[in-house]
Amino acid sequence: MLFFSSMATIQLTTFINAPAQRVFDLSRSINLHKISTADTGETAIDGVLNGLISEGQSVTWQARHLFKQRKFTTLISHMQPPLHFIDEMTAGDFKSFKHQHHFKPTNNGTIMIDVLDFKAPYGIIGRLFTRLYLKQYLRQLLQKRNEVIKEYAETKKWISILTPATT
Prior knowledge:
167 residues
C-alpha cells in the first residue's frame, strides 16, 4: 500500500539585494501580489483591496486556477515587522493552508524564506493529486512571486508600490 503524507510543505529561500523592511513590505503588498499573479488574473475582491496588509486583516482573492474560477480568503494571523508574518486560509479549496514568510537581514541584503504548509481535501485522491501535481504548481506560483518581489526590491520599481499614495 502506498502511503502519502496528508500535509505537504514547500520551502523556498531567495536572496534579495535590498533592505529587509523593503522586502517585508513588498511581500505584504496587495498591489504587488496582483502583478506577480497576472497570469492567473488574480484580483482582490474583499477585505484589503490595495496597499499593505497588516496583522488581523484579511483579503479574499479570486483567480483562475486549475481550469476553474476560485476564491481564497487569507488572514494575517501574526506579524513581527520586518522579520516575519504568517497568512492562513480562512476560506477556500484547501483543507488547510498556512504560509510563513521569514526575512533575515544580512550585510548585503535579505534572505527571504517561505514555508508553505498545506493540505488538499478529498482524502487519498487529494494526497495523490498533491504529490503528482499540486505541490509543483504551488511551488511555481511562489517562485514567480519571489522573482517579482526580487525584481521590484532590487530596482527602483519598489517606489511605485511603496509610496504613500499606494499604501
